[in-house]
Structures are given as structure tokens and as C-alpha cells.
Design goal:
The chain is built from twelve helices and 20 strands. The protein is α+β, with helices and mostly antiparallel strands and 407 residues long. Helix 1 runs parallel beside helix 9. The longest helix is centred in the last third of the chain and has 28 residues. The structure holds adenosine-5-diphosphoribose (APR) and P-hydroxybenzoic acid. Adenosine-5-diphosphoribose binds next to helix 1 and helix 9. The site of P-hydroxybenzoic acid has 10 residues, from strand 15.
Length: 407
């Protein structure tokens, strides 16, 4: 088998990259370990930044998103039993977010790629990379019982945190920076109408809670729990009790309950591998970085990576210039670290630290009060949450003026 770009992983990163390359007339083959039905049913994130939603629409895969996605112009910060709305759109000249399940994005992209004649091989096994340091990298794998070789010009490692791409880079040629948070999220999907129109991020002395949603009939809810929490210790009644306690307000908010459709415990970590390129292998998405889910950034950062990569690959294949490829890693990492900081900032602002005391609690509440009342502070949250423009970091927003001489 031969192709221009071998893509490992049919998650949001791999599928969007294949789609963007197709639009540029560049062919690719996507290799995926899981079945199509598994890939399309995995419950993951659910918030699209402004530019991610725009990208899906602008590249012709946003029809169902426009029909079913829930556009939000604000979110609530809830602390001391009071909800304070952050008007995201007013603070960012009309930008907002769209609530739309990641598995829906995956479904739409798989359908679009297959309809366009794209090649996605599901249920591959024994994937390995060879020759990524040279000009003719090869991806070996087994599919339908047969060992196959895919000769490529470039390889994109979009196979997530547990994939084979990152480990294919010699450890001497890469470095990782990571942080494990001292708590996890217990998440549920409930067959219940959302209890509010927008997302509610709650700071509470018993721990963080988040009210999100997937549709007018399905609510998505999360609780901060200790690491190593076992789902068996959290029967439905206990989950709902804790959610009622943490989300309670003094203005009569009522949390609607319903059958729990799905539940899980997710550890919270920050992780970055640098550089995101080695020879002809380019890492994108969770293969290169992980962020805590508080900022709703994982999917969106993956989309930003592959937009940079598709742009760089298009310049290479169409003009023979490798400037974009040469700048790919640095360009991505500038945004990755901005998003790592924002995700860590929101996580530390809203979660109870393990050594919580009166002082840490009062500092968090004072910071939340500042974000809820200062336009400058609220803009910091809003512009990061809706997503900084793609060219952020390549221009100076606020050029420094020369000092005014003392009179
Ligand atoms: N070979 C082929 N495919 C693989 C391999 C492998 N060795 N290992 C993993 N995969 C597949 C996984 O089955 C998955 O479908 O690669 C895909 C990686 O997709 P994601 O993990 O979703 O990563 P990414 O596309 O970068 O999207 C990031 O997904 O996990 C969420 O929170 C994360 O929202 C973020 C988003
Ligand atoms: C979700 O709806 O799954 C979700 C929303 C916001 C977050 C994280 C997850 O910060």
C-alpha cells in the first residue's frame, strides 16, 4: 500500500487531518485499532470552541452540528451558593461555544471521509512504524489476518495518549513534562433534561461539580472525587445526593435526575511531549499532550494541531517548501502551553486541593469573585474558554508603547 500521509488513529485528530488533506488534494490512509462502532460510541468531551465549530462548518461537515449542536453564549460560575453568569460572547466580540458530543464529531468525519472515498482501516493490530528518520517511512500492521505495509511520505501520529507513535520516537530525542492532579472526575450521562440552559462550573467545599449536557434530553454531570475512586463505591443515589449538595443555590435551583446511561472515573493530568515532530513523523492531539478536562480543551487542541499540520503538509506537497513542517512543533507547542496554563488555572480555581484549609478556600472565593465582577478578569476566562484565534501567539495583541518620559 502507498499513500502520501499515513495517519495512525481515527479519533478527532486523525479524522480531521485526513479530511483537511483531502480538501487539499492530498491522499491519506487512516489506521484505527478499534471498530467503527466503538470509535463512534465512545463518550468523551462535548464542548467545541468557536473556531472548531466554524472549521467543521467551513469544511462541509457541519450540517448535523448546525442542526443538533447547542450554541452557548455564556456559562455560570457557582460559588457560595450563588450563580454568576460569564457572558462569553459579550466579552469576546460574539464568539461562543457549541455543545456537541465528540462521538458525534467522529461520526460526522467518518461519514464524510467514506463518502469522499477516503480509506479508513478499522480493527488493525500490531501497528509499528519504521524509517521515520528517512524519506520513506513505513507503517506495518495486521488487518483482517494479513500483515500489511503502508509506504508513506509522511506519518501523522494521531493515536492518542496510549498509542504507538510517541513511543516510536527514541526517548533520547524527546522529553516529556507532566503533572498529575491529586483528584479525579466521576462523570455520568443521565437520561434527564438539563437543569439549566448553560454549563455550571461549581466551587464547593466538598469539591468541584460540573453541570453540562448533550441534548435537550441528556445531561452530562461531573463530580470531583479522590484519585483511585471506585465506581462501586458510588451507587446512583450517592452520586445524585452529592450533585444536589454541591450544585445547590439559595435561589431554588433544582437538579433534574434520570436514569444513568454511562458513568466513569477519569484521572486528571497535564502532559506534554516535545518536540511534536521526529523526522517524517508528526504527533497531533492526545498523542502529544493531555490537559485536565476543566477547560474543555482536549478535542479543540487536537483540532488546532491538525489545522497547523494540514497547512504545513499542503505547503510541502504542493510547493515543495518545508517551512511549515519545520515550524510545526514550535507553532503547536506555543498554543499547547497556553491551553495547559488555562486548563490548570481553571482546575486550581475550582477544585478543592487535598490540603484545603480556610486560607485556600478564601483565596479561591476571592478569585472567583474577581472573575465574576471584573471585565478584565472575566475576559481572561472568556477568551481562553471560547478559544483564542488560531493565529494567536504569532502576533502581538498589545504592542508595547515607548515609556512616557517623566515630566
Ligand atoms: N494504532 C491505530 N490506532 C490507534 C492505536 C494504534 N496503535 N492506538 C490508539 N489508536 C486509536 C484509538 O483507538 C483512538 O480512536 O487512536 C485514536 C486516538 O483518538 P483520541 O484518543 O480521541 O485522540 P485525539 O484524536 O487526539 O483526540 C483528542 O479525544 O480522548 C479525547 O480527551 C481527548 O478530547 C480529546 C480528544
Ligand atoms: C462535557 O460536556 O463533557 C464537558 C463540558 C465542559 C468541560 C468538560 C466536559 O469542562
Amino acid at each position: 500500500m502507498r499513500t502520501q500521509v499515513g495517519i495512525i488513529g481515527a479519533g478527532p485528530a486523525g479524522l480531521m487531518l485526513s479530511h483537511l488533506l483531502h480538501l487539499e488534494g492530498i491522499d491519506s490512509v487512516v489506521l484505527e485499532t478499534r471498530s467503527r462502532s466503538y470509535a463512534e460510541s465512545r463518550v468523551r468531551a462535548g464542548v467545541l470552541e468557536h473556531d472548531t465549530a466554524q472549521l467543521l462548518t467551513d469544511t462541509g461537515v457541519g450540517e448535523r452540528l448546525r442542526r443538533e449542536g447547542l450554541v452557548h453564549t455564556g456559562l455560570d460560575l457557582r460559588f457560595d451558593g450563588v450563580s454568576r453568569r460569564i457572558d462569553l460572547s459579550a466579552l469576546t466580540s460574539g464568539r461562543g461555544i457549541t455543545v456537541y458530543g465528540q462521538q458525534e464529531v467522529v461520526k460526522d468525519l467518518i461519514a464524510a471521509r467514506l463518502a469522499a472515498g477516503g480509506e479508513i482501516l478499522f480493527e488493525v493490530t500490531d501497528v509499528s512504524l519504521d524509517g521515520i528518520d528517512g524519506d520513506t517511512p513505513v507503517v506495518r500492521f495486521k488487518h483482517e489476518g494479513t500483515i500489511r505495509e503502508l509506504s508513506c511520505v509522511m506519518v501523522a501520529g494521531c493515536d492518542g495518549f496510549h498509542g504507538v507513535s510517541r513511543p516510536s520516537i527514541p526517548s533520547s530525542a524527546r522529553r516529556t513534562v507532566e503533572h498529575t492532579y491529586p483528584f479525579s472526575w466521576l462523570g455520568i450521562l443521565a437520561q434527564a433534561a438539563p437543569s439549566a440552559h448553560e454549563l455550571i462550573y461549581t466551587h464547593h467545599e466538598r469539591g468541584f461539580a460540573l453541570h453540562s449536557m448533550r441534548s435537550p434530553e441528556v445531561t452530562r454531570l461531573y463530580l470531583q472525587v479522590p484519585n483511585e475512586t471506585l465506581l462501586d463505591d458510588w451507587p446512583a443515589a450517592r452520586i445524585w445526593d452529592e450533585l444536589h449538595t454541591r450544585l445547590a443555590t439559595n435561589d431554588g435551583f433544582t437538579l433534574k435526575e434520570g436514569p444513568i446511561l454511562e458513568q466513569g472515573v477519569t484521572p486528571m493530568r497535564s502532559f506534554v511531549t516535545e518536540p511534536m515532530r521526529h523526522g517524517q513523523l508528526f504527533l497531533a492531539g492526545d498523542a502529544a499532550h493531555i490537559v485536565p478536562p476543566t477547560g474543555a480543551k482536549g478535542l479543540n487542541l487536537a483540532m488546532a494541531d491538525v489545522r497547523f499540520l494540514a497547512d504545513a503538509l499542503s505547503t510541502w506537497f504542493r510547493q515543495g517548501r518545508d517551512t511549515g513542517l519545520g515550524e510545526y512543533s514550535a507553532r503547536c507547542l506555543r498554543r499547547v502551553w497556553r491551553v495547559q496554563h488555562f486548563s490548570a488555572w481553571m482546575t486550581n480555581l475550582l477544585h478543592q486541593p487535598v490540603d484545603a484549609d480556610e486560607f485556600s478556600h478564601r483565596l479561591q472565593v476571592a478569585h472567583l469573585e474577581y472573575v465574576a465582577t471584573s471585565t478584565a478578569a472575566a475576559t481572561t476566562l472568556a477568551e481562553n474558554y471560547v478559544g483564542l484565534p488560531l493565529d494567536w501567539g504569532s502576533r502581538v495583541d498589545m504592542p508595547a508603547r515607548p515609556p512616557v518620559p517623566f515630566a
